[in-house]
Amino acid sequence: MANDYPRSYRVADQIQRELSELIRLEVKDPGVSKMLTISSVDVSRDLSIARVYYTLFDEEELKTTQKGLTRSSGYLRRCLSRSLTLRSVPELRFIYDDSIAQGNKMSALIDNAVRSNSTAADSDDPVVQSTSDQDASSAASPGDENT
User: Fold this and answer.
1) Backbone φ and ψ of 27, nearest 5°
2) What would the CATH number be for the domain defined by 7-97?
3) So what's the pLDDT on residue 147?
4) 103-137 tens-digit pLDDT
5) How far is the C-alpha of 126 from the C-alpha of 122, rounded, in Å?
6) Terminus-to-terminus CA distance in the chain, angstroms?
7) For 26-56, b where at least 16 C-beta lie within 10 A, e where not — what string?
């Protein structure tokens, strides 16, 4: 059971929950955006480093938020030490997670491709109309040949 879910995963989950609350309620740095979401936390096996991946609602605040999180990392680490039962709290490294933005771009590209493909078939293209007319006439002709 312990090997299925290592301690580093459990610590990462706890850090993610605690950091979400701390950033929302405790951090007073004006550079840190209030529209920040902790998407995941990866903790090294020796529990010395925690990579905290975050996303922002407004990507224009990225630089100021990154600087604010870096400035607040010592404070956040001290607050984590009060709530976690660890001998030493991992060093916090904040990394912007752009996977959601990349996913939105890919989704938009797929939507555009599907939209452009369906509009070509729905247009008044003579080639498309002639093949559909032939299909309709061939469907009616087998019954006509028998009579």
Assistant:
1) -75, 125
2) 3.30.300.20
3) 46
4) 888 999 999 989 888 755 555 555 555 554 555 55
5) 11
6) 76
7) ebebebbbeebebeebbbeeebeebbbbbbb
